[in-house]
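input
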Amino acid sequence: MRIATWNINSLRARTERVVAFLQRHDIDVLALQELKAKPEQLDLTSIHEAGYETAVHGLNQWNGVGLASRVGLADVRTTMDAVPTYPEDETGVLEARMISAVVGDGLRLWSLYVPNGREIDHPHYAYKLRWLDAVRAEGARLLAADPESRTIFAGDFNVAPRDEDVWDMSVFEGRTHVTPPERAAFEAIVDAGYADLTRAYTPGPGTYTYWDYQALRFPKKEGMRIDFLLGSPAVQRQVADARIDREERKGKGASDHAPVILDLEG
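output
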């Protein structure tokens, strides 16, 4: 089974790029983030005509997540225990940042759009850390209930776990995405049993998945590695290959993220 994750940065603007990507890479299941639309605002006809079922979750013009699958979509969920609202008070909303379904032969795939954090002293930063901890808790719960459960947390994590995952650490001094608490929250998910499934196949500095539109970041090769697929032990044993489609970041109308592709065998 071939799985991919892609922050599309507006599905309405890039639906045809999604269809072309699905067909070019022969993708079985695609996890999408940052749809920037309510479900009723999306025309998914071309995706359906290409042979894919879809499940999408969006509340407004921000955030939004989805799944496109040609190997089934069962038991769709849009939340998990302990996910915080934002703001974290009586006015808070459970944002459209996660969706999951059982695909293929029993794999639960989550599409996650982790909060950005904004600034270190901003309430969104604390919200981000609690949001990541909810993912850790869900992962730990699943493995406690069944050590052979097959789960992948895929998406835009808005965390660069290692110094090599950004082009210049000095640029990020005092900024989000690279702080010790964020990295610790990411590693806590890994420590709960969910390994990074792609790094062994896409190693080294300069292997990025995101390049800001501003300041010519892409041609300057000034990117970040913030998109991941984290899998349970049973999934880890199935990994056959992985790659980042950097070409998809090129050209007019590209998302600022590149898709990450994972091949599972068995």
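quick obs: The first strand starts at residue 2 and ends at 7.
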